[in-house]
Structures are given as C-alpha cells and as structure tokens.
What we know:
The chain is of the alpha/beta class. 28% of the residues lie in helices and 21% in strands. The protein has a 7-stranded mixed β-sheet with strand order 3-2-1-4-10-6-11, with helices on both faces. The protein has a 3-stranded antiparallel β-sheet with strand order 7-8-9, with no helix packed on it. α1 runs parallel beside α2 (47-56). The model has no long low-confidence stretch (mean pLDDT 97). Bound molecules: uridine-5'-diphosphate and manganese (II) ion. Manganese (II) ion binds next to loops.
Amino acid sequence: DVPPLYIITPTYRRPEQIAELTRLSHTLMLVPNIMWLVIEDAYQINDLIEDVLKKSRLKYLYTVAPMPAQFKNKTKGPKPRGVSNRNKGLEWIRQNAKTGVLYFADDDNTYDLDLFHQIRFTKRVSMFPVGLVTKAGVSSPIIKNGEFSGFYDGWIGGRKFAVDMAGFAVSVHFLHQRPKASMPFKPGFEEDGFLKSLSPFEPKEIELLADNCTKILVWHTQTKKNEPSLPLDMAKYSNTNLI
Ligand code: UDP
Ligand code: MN
C-alpha cells in the first residue's frame, strides 16, 4: 500500500467552478490512496459541489473557510486568494492525519499523473518545475551539477523560496514537527511565508523531483473568466452555479 496523499484544493463560487472541479475530480480519480480536501471560500456549502465530489467516489472532505472580510472587501490591490482555505486544510491534516504527504492543488491547474506518484514519497519538502508561470514560462528550482542552486521565476520578489503554490509537497510527519506552520495572508508571499514557517528548513534541503527538475508535471493554467449567466436562461440546468 502506498502512503496517503492529502490534496488541499481551495475553490470559490464562479461560473467556471463546476467545470474546474469536474476536470480535477477526473484527474484525481486516477490516483490511488488520496484524500481530497475541498475547501470553499464561502459562508455556506453548495450542494452542487457536494454532487461533483460524491459522483467521483473519491474520499473527500468538503467544507468552507471564508476569506476574512478585511481582505474580501478590499477594492484595490491583490487579495490573499485561497489562504483561509489552505490553512483550514492544514488544520484538518494536523488533527486527522499521521503519515503521507500534502499538496496544494488549485482547482484550475493541470496535473500530470506522474506528479502524484512522485510527491507521495516526499520525506520533508519536495519541489519540481511548474509550467506557465509568468512570462518566464516556468517556475522551478535551478539545478547545477545535480544540486540545488537557486530559484528560477519571473518574479523573485526578494523571496527565500521563490516558488509557485503548485511547485512543492510536504510530508505530514514533517508538518507535525512544525506545529506553528501556516500560510500568511500576504499576496505574492503565500508560498514563501508558508515554507519559511516550516523553519528550520533551508532551500538546500529540498528534495528535487521530476527528473532533477527537468520535466514539467504541473501547469499553472488559468481559465478565462466567463460572464455570469442570466438566471432565467440557466434555471433549468440542475448543475449550474447561479451567481
Ligand atoms: N480562490 C479562492 N477565493 C478567491 C479566489 C481564488 O478560494 O477569492 C481559490 C481558487 O479557486 C484557486 C486558488 O484560490 O484554487 C488560487 O486562485 P486563482 O486560481 O484565482 O489564482 P491564480 O491562479 O490566478 O494566481
Ligand atoms: Mn489559478
């Protein structure tokens, strides 16, 4: 039996949501021994999401974790997207999991199944390239002579860990040894803040996957925003979010 994988997926209500979660569920259905933690930025659950999860027959938790109002109501500048959701997932893992590995899988990204096979054996923190991040085209650890030698990313931003949310996995055992680790509500610095909160842990200790970071097994894809549909047109479709 392979070690369990805990997949933390933040999600939020929008016209594309059910399409994204349907696609991700069909990826995860092909992965053995996973627990899917789907956590919605909302005040109440949505039965349509529950339907997608039930239909997948995956083991899952579906719950809510709203973005604090101080951020949600901001009118300018970026918001800390998915942070409450991920912190709630981490809390669940602390209380319910002992072994295995956790991975933050946004609902709109694209995952090669090999990724899940590889991250499952993470001892502490593993990293790998993520495609389609900034105009650089990729975000990845840089490897020189087989060893870690920095981060490649279109925006380094003074970060100690200049990585994308999709570019690392963490062992549950290691998380338990870091009881205060959590993700900050700090747009652009969510990954860096979380990885720093795993201190003591240094970039040179990263476990390099994806053939020493020469393969892209996950893409930070983004779905075009669709117009909210007119409720009158959509009312007869039983699996549509009315916005
Ligand atoms: N998300 C969320 N609340 C929001 C916006 C986004 O929970 O208000 C989730 C979203 O479903 C995704 C993750 O947070 O899983 C990252 O958001 P998004 O994909 O919009 O960010 P981007 O990929 O554009 O950086
Ligand atoms: Mn995204």
